[in-house]
Amino acid sequence: MTEGALLAAEAVSTGEAVTFWIVGPVALAGALGMVFSRNAIHSALWLVLTMLGLGVFYFVQQAPFLGVVQIIVYTGAIMILFLFVLMLVGRESSDSVVETLRGQRQAAIVAGVAFAALVGAGIGRAVYDAPVVGLEEATADGGNVVAIARILFTDYLFAFELTSALLITAAVGAMVLAHVEKEPSERRTQKDLSTARYASSRPGTLTGPGVLATSNSLDTPAILADGQPAADSAATGIEMRELPPVPDHDTTPTKGTPR
Amino acid sequence: MTPTYYLVLAAILFTIGAVGVLVRRNAIVVFMCVELMLNSVNLTLVTFSRINGTLDGQIIAFFVMVVAAAEVVVGLAIIMSIFRTRRSASIDDANLLKY
């Protein structure tokens, strides 16, 4: 080990190393779980785990302000926004398994492993022996937040002001994109809906979920007279429960109903 | 260990995000993978800020967070409007700029 490596190793305390080896695998597992979970909501929750781990790393690496911003802005605001959109999009958010390009997944994984090895080895060799200066001197006068504020409002003032323009543009753009212009006449009245329903092949109300089934929960389809589950009784947006085999109605007495 | 370990972890996280962008079909999950890539770059910036002993890396990471927040707002609005017209959040279905 060279002298630089010794210096670099001294910059990291044992507690930090322990934190790294605990939180690092957790963050890695979160990232892998995000990529490989079928359900988009599970992906979002895995990503929250990774972002919390990165927030811990910021705290450990003398960046408490960024750690707080990471937890509040990323896990608090951005991921909640993701979850809101997932809820709006609904069950369509599940991923399709159809491969449009043959072998794309394998190629992507191979390229990813190669890229990680290349960049990781490159960075590792380039800066492994670099002496770690540490931020004690830079944040000596008033601590991390004061030092960041001092630089932000002097050297980076113009960029900071541009940020305000960016945020306003983004807010306006989101409103323009998400807004739907609707004429009052476009709205279907109750009369229109009723006419359309009687013109259809099925004017009556659809069967509710759980009717004549073994359970009355919302995820149980109704059972038709021939014992088959009624597909149109399924509630939208939730996964239907697998029904147990239907008992023979002639031999088993129905419990709780007067004969 | 040295702070280099953080850089290697950030490289691995970036790669996972990139592979996710290539592999996943759901536009929202692809977007989350992009967020993961931005986050790993932030970790790199914070680590280099510590190695070099200046706060500029942390400032740039802060700006990255601001830009990422704006990007998420606009991007999710675009995904919502695509979903409204095409009833699908799959990136394979979004092959037209209009209709």
Compact description:
With 259 residues, chain A is mainly α. Chain A is 56% helix and 0% strand.
Give a written overview of the molecule.
The complex is a heterodimer of chains A (259) and B (99). Chain A has 259 residues and is an all-alpha fold. Chain A has helices at 3-10, 14-36, 40-60, 64-89, 104-127, 143-152, 157-178, 190-199. Chain A has a domain at 9-92: NADH-ubiquinone/plastoquinone oxidoreductase chain 6, subunit NuoJ (Four Helix Bundle (Hemerythrin (Met), subunit A), Up-down Bundle). In chain A, 56% of the residues lie in helices and 0% in strands. The radius of gyration of chain A is 29 Å and the shape is elongated. Chain A starts with a helix and ends in a 60-residue tail after the last helix. By secondary structure, chain B is mainly alpha-helical. In chain B, 78% of the residues lie in helices and 0% in strands. Chain B has helices spanning 4-23, 27-52, 56-86. In chain B, helix 1 packs antiparallel against helix 2 and helix 2 (27-52) runs antiparallel to helix 3 (56-86). Chain B is elongated and about 50 Å long. The chains are: A mainly alpha (259), B mainly alpha (99). Chains A and B meet through helix 1, helix 2, helix 3, helix 4 and helix 5 of A and helix 1, helix 2 and helix 3 of B.
Q: Which keywords apply here?
A:
heterodimer, A: 259 residues, mainly alpha, Four Helix Bundle (Hemerythrin (Met), subunit A), 8 helices, B: 99 residues, 3 helices, 0% strand, elongated
